[in-house]
Amino acid sequence: MNLATWVERHGRRLRDDPALATGEDVHATWGELAARVAGGAGGLRDRLGLEPGDRVAIVMGNRPEYLEVQYAAWHAGLVAVPVNARLHRDEIAYVLEHSGARVAVTDDEHAEDVGALLERVGTLEAVVRAPGPEWEGLRTAAPVPLTDRGTDDPAWLFYTSGTTGRPKGATLTHGNLLMASLSYFADIDPVASTDSVLHAAPLSHGSGLYGLPHVAKGAVSVFTEGTVDGARLLTLTRRWPGLSFFAAPIMVRRLAGDEALRDADLSGLKTIIYGGAPMYLADLEAALGTFGPRLAQIYGQGETPMTITGLSKADHAGTDHPRWRERMQSVGFPRTDVDVRVVDPDDRAVPTGEVGEVLVRGGVVMSGYWQAEEATAETLRGGWLHTGDVGSLDEDGFLTLKDRSKDLIISGGMNIYPREVEEALLTHPQVEAVAVVGRPDPEWGESVVAFVVPGDDPPSSEDLDRTCLDRIARFKRPKEYHLVDALPTNSYGKVLKRELREQLAGE
Q1: What is the rounded CA–CA span in Å between residue 74 and residue 7?
Q2: Dihedral sign, CA of 129, 130, 132, 137?
Q3: Which of 72, 134, 173, 231 has the maximum number of C-beta atoms within 10 A of its C-beta?
Q4: Phi, psi of 262, rounded to the nearest 5 degrees
Q5: How far apart are CA 93 and CA 84, in angstroms?
Q6: Rounded distance, CA 327 to CA 394, Å?
Q7: Which residues touch 320 (CB under 8 Å, ≥6 apart)?
């Protein structure tokens, strides 16, 4: 099934109902969106010469045109490559090159960086601005029929950093994304065409994935400029009732403490789905005090789009359960559509309560990594996705994570792999060695800390910052630099990052 079928159907059945909104204003009805999607598909196919299976990169902030482009690509049988718009130009270039994107669609804010890649990325043939006359010209082309796609056909390349620091493209098929959407209905919420979804987090990641079930049922997708604070949230819930949104815990914490929401009428707010970083129990209790039983937690990865375990709204509301606090510090119960195991290094299941690697299998798990057969075989060995996360299952089946994928740092809901930060710092001529770890942070979840062995002329923190900002996204740069004489290593010369984390914990 082609996911763009949803838009085509709503264009007939819900023709005059709102599909896209900017703030309180309707940006497009379903009839208008369906016409733009079919026309955009025609423009991509007939004017730019793309063929089914070709890749279209989307490098944009959150805006209604994002969904126009994404569904037009699917309508045409193309593969969408949503790119984190906060990445550095070099990082964007790698994703475009690796995915073999022939076209990149961007907005005014990112047009200079993306346009400069036309001469640099060998496969890239065109850069289209949306909104603007270029996209307008494509979406008003003669519409083409919906391209037939099977459940095993790629739909979305989800680029997620690997432990080597190089992003890997998790190939998510139409079937994977359909299953993720059905799992949302089963475990998070039913959705009606009278509901709405607010895109407050990046569409290239969680918000885009949780937008899918809302599009499937004909709900309105809401966009707003700037940060969503309490006052803005109230305005939107009054205009678009039945509103849900995905957020990193840091955003939930900030909204929970916003004075505008104290004792406010939140009847128009349906669900806040949070995940991507730890939510401390005190912060969760404060959020429940503000929002009531409207919170749902998810645990997942790009390889199994946000669908491994979850804590439902009922779990959050069940404060009379004797182990409620313990459960709230877990990542929840296996989702309806997956099997979850915790295993030892030989992939044998460990007893209840013992720690091991978390494995998952099901129809939501990616088909593999794009152009990475060895990594695919290793990660999907034995028919199970090896998450790299370490945890334990209790007697009731709730999963608690003990550690994340070895060195992964999650700050403000964004994944940061130390290797890519280390590689950037090692380009400085006065950095002999470096190790990057995460420090628990009450606001961001974790902050990035770099231990640097300097050369004869030790660099300043400002010098190291400039080195990072020239090569990686701003949110990945370290918040602290520690100059040290040597890094702790084992007998094989491997850096013992656990000792560095313990050192930070003892400060």
Answers
A1: 11
A2: positive
A3: 72
A4: -65, 120
A5: 12
A6: 10
A7: none
**Per-residue pLDDT tens for 105-118?**
999 999 999 999 99
394 touches 353 (CB < 8 A): yes
Nearest partner of 125 among 100, 107, 89, 88, judged by Cα: 100
Rounded to whole angstroms, how far apart are CA atoms 246 and 121? 33
Q: Is the sign of the CA dihedral 447, 448, 454, 459 positive or negative?
A: negative
Backbone phi and psi for residue 359, each to the nearest 5 degrees, phi listed first = -120, 150
- What's the CA dihedral at 80, 85, 90, 93 to 10 degrees? 20
Closest CA to 361 of 378, 344, 386, 343: 386
CA angle 215, 219, 223 (to 5 degrees): 85
Phi and psi based region of residue 447 (left: phi greater than 0; alpha: psi -120 to 50; beta: remaining): beta
From 459, 180, 488, 146, select the one nearest 304 (Cα to Cα): 180
Phi, psi of 128 (to 5 degrees): -115, 130
Q: How many other CB atoms are found less than 10 A from the CB of residue 297?
A: 24
Q: Higher-confidence residue: 388 or 74?
A: 74
Nearest-angstrom CA–CA distance, 51 and 42: 11
Reading the block at residue 494, the tokens are 């491997």
Q: What is the pTM of this model?
A: 0.86
d(CA 188, CA 225): 27
Which helix (H) or strand (E) element contains residue 126?
strand 126-129
- Token match 């995940």: residue? 275
d(CA 505, CA 142): 62
Task: Round to whole Å and give the CA distance between 104 and 64.
Answer: 17
Termini Cα distance of the chain: 55
Model pLDDT for residues 203-248, shown as the tens digit of each residue:
999 999 999 999 999 999 999 988 899 999 999 999 999 999 999 8
- Strands (E) across 10-116 are located at 18-22, 25-29, 55-59, 79-82, 103-106
Strands 154-161 and 356-362: unpaired
C-alpha–C-alpha distance, residues 25 and 226, integer Å: 16
> Strand, helix or coil at 318?
coil
Question: Which two structure tokens, joined as six digits, stand for 495?
Answer: 């850096």
CB atoms closer than 10 angstroms to residue 47: 13
At 274, the amino acid letter reads Y
Q: Are 304 and 364 in contact (CB under 8 A)?
A: yes
For the chain, domains (ranges, CATH) are 337-403 (2.30.38.10), 409-505 (3.30.300.30)
